[in-house]
Specification:
Elements: H1 2-24, H2 32-43, H3 52-61, H4 66-90, H5 92-102, H6 106-129, H7 134-143, H8 148-173, H9 175-183, H10 185-203
Helix pairs in contact: 1-3, 1-10, 2-3, 2-4, 3-4, 3-8, 4-5, 4-7, 4-8, 6-7, 6-8
Protein name: Membrane protein
Organism: Candidatus Scalindua japonica
Pfam families: VTT_dom (PF09335)
Length: about 210
């Protein structure tokens, strides 16, 4: 059983490596900023891959523009969160529920919905900064009719903090951190996948 799980994690890590190689080329095209914006927007409402992947790829290629990319990523993510809210608020049965079912996270969604009765702002803020799947929180916020300004404020604080932290590392360390990532990318990819998986698991214990 353990060997199967390790094989699955390694396979996902290899997939991320291919994705990393693919995203690197966006830094050399005139469409890089739009690609980052669209990815950040979609990930906050329905897409599985976090925008950090492309943000890192672009920051590696052009460290001097790291903060610009962080702004684009933040704005896209916040607006995407509003779209996720809209899906949950107006079209949960037709769109929101199929998305939740597709990712097989119905139990997680129910747990998140319960958390909103305790402290919606904290729940959203924590999810926005951590590997916890953010789309679950944005759709649940709409389905639970949470004040949209609570979502926007919590998203603006947590998502911006997360993306600017990433951008700051590349802006300060530049080529040094690029060399480090390229040297240890396989290990970092496995850690990244584990964080993503743990994010889904962590939601179940937010009580």
């Amino acid at each position: 059983m353990e060997s199967i799980e390790k094989e699955q994690i390694t396979r996902k890590a290899n997939h991320i490596r291919r994705l990393y190689d693919w995203t690197i080329h966006w830094a050399e095209t005139p469409h890089s900023t739009w690609a980052l914006f669209i990815l950040a927007f979609c990930e906050s409402s329905f897409f599985p891959i976090p925008p950090d992947v492309l943000l890192i790829a672009l920051a590696v290629a052009l460290p001097g523009k790291s903060f610009k990319y962080a702004i684009i990523c933040s704005v896209g993510s916040i607006l995407g969160g509003c779209f996720g809210y809209f899906i949950g608020y107006q079209f949960f049965e037709f769109v929101g529920r199929p998305i939740i079912s597709f990712y097989n996270i119905t139990d997680i969604f129910d747990t998140v919905s319960t958390q909103y009765h305790n402290n919606a702002f904290s729940a959203i803020a924590v999810a926005g900064f951590t590997p916890i799947p953010y789309k679950v929180f944005t759709i649940a916020a709409g389905a639970c009719k949470i004040n949209i300004f609570t979502l926007i404020l919590a998203s603006a604080l947590s998502r911006s903090a997360r993306f600017f932290l990433v951008a700051g590392l590349f802006y300060v360390f530049g080529p040094k951190i690029k060399t480090f990532i390229e040297k240890y990318f396989n290990i970092l990819s496995i850690i990244f996948v584990i964080l993503l998986i743990s994010g889904f698991i962590a939601v179940k214990y937010l009580k």
